[in-house]
Amino acid sequence: MSLKFVPRRSEERGNADHGWLKTFHTFSFAMYQDSKHELYGPLRVINEDRVAPRTGFGTHSHREFEIFSYVVSGELEHKDSMGNTEVLKRGDVQLTSAGTGISHSEKTYGSKQVHFLQIWSLPSTARLTPKYFTRHFSDEEKADKWVRIVAPVGAEGVLATREGEGPAPVQSPLTLYSTLLGAGKTLERPLEGKKGYIHVVQTSGYNEGPGKGASVRISSKGSEELTLREGDGAYILVEKGANPLVVENSGDSTAEILVFDLD
């Protein structure tokens, strides 16, 4: 059985340049609204944000979302109403289970811009007690390998501790894998859920036009191939018993890639 790919090109994402914030929205968010891109399974938000030094998102509130930040470069200072204060660096993943409600701020720490992905998913259970988790995954761990960085509570190897080894625990049917795939390298990733989503991180710089930088080719036995550049993504429709997703770095630079396995 094959996989079906529907491209989500970088230049088609919602986009805003506020000066202090340069952002892309894969799904409807803030002033960007598109009924064709509201959510995908439990996945509700993928924002690729670049925040200028000495600026950021002031204190604001959330509830009933699982909110995680994936830091690409720079440093991000997080403060919240649960008493957590932390500076997140490259390789860090921070997950807040907002549940019945939290307030937090996210600001650039230091003199360099911070580039991070803010991802939200819908929890399987409402009115949860808010919780906070952090994990770190080094570039060495992700080099030409899939690393499971977020996984459902109760899944094998998932510890509900604030810090520690293994993936951060999410209250959604969502598993997130990350890799740094070198030029000419290929990885397979079986998808166990009903849907998937792949995103190529825009590591080479902010670009409002068609994707540039790293190039990857995705395929599956019996499926048509699709080429993605930085900032591009693709919806993946998974038939029961489908063949694994195959990701090949078809360019000449390392590609930072996220794959969501969704039920």
Automatic annotation (TrEMBL):
It comes from the Eukaryota. Fe cation binds at residues 60, 62, 104, 106. The keyword Transport does not apply. Keywords: Iron, Metal-binding. Residues 13-120 form the Pirin N-terminal domain. Its cofactor is Fe cation. GO terms for molecular function: metal ion binding. InterPro entries: Pirin, Pirin_N_dom, RmlC-like_jellyroll, RmlC_Cupin_sf. It holds the Pfam family Pirin. Gene3D superfamilies: Jelly Rolls (2.60.120.10). Binds 1 Fe cation per subunit. Belongs to the pirin family. This is RmlC-like cupin.
